Amino acid sequence: MSEWLEGDGPKTIGALCEHFGAQSFAVVFVVLLALPALPLPTGGVTHVLEIVAMLLSLELLAGRREVWVPRRWRATELKALTGPKASAALVRRVRWFERFSRPRWGGIVTSPIARRLYGLTVLALSALAFVAPPFTGLDTLPALGVVVVSLGVLLTDAVIVGIGLVIGTGGLALVLALGSAVFRLL
User: Fold this and answer.
1) Tell me: the pLDDT tens digits for 55-83?
2) 28-40 confidence digits (pLDDT tens)
3) What does pTM read for this prediction?
4) Distance CA 141, CA 170 (A)
5) Which of 118, 137, 129 has its CA nearest to residue 52?
6) Contact assessment for residue 36 and residue 139, using Cβ atoms and an 8 Å cutoff
7) 63: region left, alpha or beta (phi > 0 left; psi from -120 to 50 alpha)
8) pLDDT score, position 79
9) pLDDT of residue 27
């Protein structure tokens, strides 16, 4: 990821998809859900990113191997990602995961069935982050789960994928527990 961000080529959606090829889904999900994964109140702005993630997860469920985006979107500059602060922070986090990861059970992570399950996971956790009320911070854990699962897929490390699933499941439990408490209160 750092070589693409620090390279001289164009920093567009199309260039990202072409550079990463079969791994483009994982990179795009990390980029899309990095902001919702931060414990900051965004006032619902992140819902747009979550909707795009859900739409792209449907591509994975349909069996696509690479991200498809409309032609006019391919030339869209990724200014927020390629800015010096954002790209440095993103590269720093990815390198932190790279230090602890190693290819563990990579065949499981990259199998066609696992790719569809990955799409289903992203769809479910993105939808959970989407329905979480704004300003509550409840969208953080599901979005973080998608980011960590995507990094595990990108690094072909099933252990990191499992950690991401645990984080996402924790987010689901938290949303259900707080939702039921509010329901009982009303």
Assistant:
1) 888 988 888 888 888 888 777 776 666 56
2) 888 888 887 777 7
3) 0.83
4) 7
5) 129
6) yes
7) left
8) 65
9) 84
